[in-house]
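#struct-pred
JK: can someone run the complex with MUC? inputs below
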Amino acid sequence: MKIERIETILVDVPTRRPHKLAFATVQAQNYVVVKVHSGGLFGIGEAATIGGPRWGDESTEAIKANIDQYIAPVLIGEDATQLNLIEQRLARSVAGNAFARAAVGMAIYDLVARSKQQSVAELMGGPVERAIELAWTLASGDTARDVEEGEEMLRRRLHRHFKVKVGAGDPARDVAHVIKLAEAFAGRATIRIDVNQGWDEHTARRFLSPLEQAGVALVEQPLPRWNVAGMARLKTSTAMSVMADEGVASSHDAIAHVQAAAADTFALKVTKSGGYAETRRIAAIAAGAGLALYGGCMLETGIGTAAYLQLFATLPSMKWGCELFGPRLLENDIVTSPPAMKDFAIHLPDGYGTGVEIDEDKLNFYRRDRSRSAQAKA
Ligand code: MUC
Ligand code: MG
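RT: done, structure tokens with the ligand placed:
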């Protein structure tokens, strides 16, 4: 099954509301959609970035350029079914560039699974779960709006775990905002916070205890990703779960966090880790060290959401569930039908590959190289 062509498409999809993080406010999400072609079939993958090269080191423009220029030439002509060799070639094709490698790898797994009439989860040995608890992120930047949004999610039985984004402004104001949310949803939903590296150690030490007293269950990446020792010190001073996200992208990062006892939960993201293989290594390190897992996201469309879900469904110890809610935040999706989100969980789709199909009309509408006015006239 020779890889014949690798196509990369830049896509921008507006969000339903501004999504406010410590380092950026997202009004439209940016993607690179990858199609890997062989024998009349193609597999799909996706890299989503948040705020350009701000959450991580890569922008969608750089991802596309590096796939086109450096990664695709290494893979053209290779046998897609030899997934371990493909992973090796991908790792050697470029230094770093985890998101770019992951998007291509996802598409190749999807292609191979489709050709074998299997799901990606089956290709990896089969799922252990078919539904995973699904968190939602409250990040409108406005307390009343967040309460209203959370109430709606509970009423519709969509989400009962809320992650609150903090770290952008005055920490005292952020903490007061989170405490109001914790009080509003006490006994009905769990509250977690994601600081996205926005605090220094002293700020975290000062503010974690009122958050813990308010019932907040988990704190995600309070400190810059390099401050592993600081995370370890914080972990000894709080009963909240301390989760590493930006700090744990590779298996080496995972080992460093285990050695330093710097986290008790790892957030997994297929793109930050350069693909399925390295993400599974991180999950294995967590399992070996007795740590919990969480299925993170980068606000993917249905393409990346389904790809992540295929892997997460194969992993035990997803104690904190996942946050694969990306499609719900977007004005529109570019797949015909994303994985079902109901009864507080996301459900593994039936079907081959990742179980979702591209909606080519919508992809054409949102692709960056197609003028919207020309589209409207067509
Ligand atoms: C992150 O750091 O976890 C994922 C969901 C969300 O709301 O923000 C992102 C990034
Ligand atoms: Mg995070």
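RT: quick notes.
The radius of gyration is 20 Å.
Residues 98-115 form the longest helix (18 residues).
JK: thanks, will look after standup
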